[in-house]
Amino acid sequence: MPELPEVETLRRALLPLVRNRALMEMQFFRPDIRFPIPAETLKRELIPNPIADITRRGKYLLLHASSGAMVWHLGMSGRISQKPSMQPVEKHTHAAFRFAPATCLHFIDPRRFGSIVWAPNGVGHPLLNHLGLDPLDPQTTAKTLMTLAKSSKAPVKSFLMDSKRLTGVGNIYASEALFGAGIHPLRPVGRLTLPAWEKLLEALRETLQESIASGGTTLRNFFSADGAPGYYAIRLSVYGKESQPCPRCGAPVARIRQTGRSSFFCKICQKW
Known about the structure:
Helix content is 26%, strand content 21%. The chain is α+β, with helices and mostly antiparallel strands. It folds into two domains: 4-129, N-terminal domain of MutM-like DNA repair proteins (Alpha-Beta Barrel), CATH 3.20.190.10; 142-265, Helicase, Ruva Protein, domain 3, CATH 1.10.8.50. Strand 9 and strand 10 form a beta hairpin. The two termini are 29 Å apart.
C-alpha cells in the first residue's frame, strides 16, 4: 500500500504538471472505485478552472480549485501515470484528466481500493474530516501526542497507525520508527514519557523524511507521474528482517502479529 512518503513523492512529482494549470477535461470509465465517483459535481466545479495547489492529508492528495478540492486516494494498488492522450491504454484505468495545454494523467487501480471524491470548501469530506495529526506538520509536537495518548492502554504501534490520532503512518514506518526510538511495539502508549515521545517523534520524522528523499519504499504497484518507479529502497533496519541480525546488537530480529499486521523489532534494543 502506498504510504505517506510515497504519496508525498507523488505530490511533488505532480506539482509542476498541474499547479496553476486549468483542468480542461476529465473522463471516468466506471461509476465508482471504492466509493461512487461524483463525476458531474467534479466536472461542474473543476472544468475549466485552474488547480491552485496540491496538498496532502495523510495518504490523501487534494487538488485545490476555487470552490473545493478533488481528493485522490491510491488505496492499495492505485497509481497515477502520465499518458500521451486521454485514451486508456492500460487495464484498470478508471479515470483520465487533461490539464492545459496537453498533460494527461490516468488514475489506474487494479484492486479498486482507491477513491476520487469532492471536498467542498468549508465542508470537507468524511474521508478527511476525522483524520488525526500529520507527523510532518511542525505543529505536531511530542507534548500534543502525549496528551492524546494519556490514559490509553493501547500498544504504541497501534496508536501510531491509528489514522484518527496520527495520519499517514503505515506498518513499515511505524516498525522502523519504534526501532529508531528503542521502544517495544507492545508498550502501552499511555506509559510513554515526554522524553520518550520526543525521541519517537524525531525517529518517525527522520524515517519518513529519509524515505521521501529517496523516493519511498520499494513496492511494485506505484509509478510517479512521469512513468518512472516511485518507490526506491531505503535502509530498513528491522522491517521484513525476521531472524536476521539486529544492526545495533546483532540479536535476531523478532516478528509478532498485531491487529493482523506483522511487527518487527529487536528484543534487546527496544525496551518494554
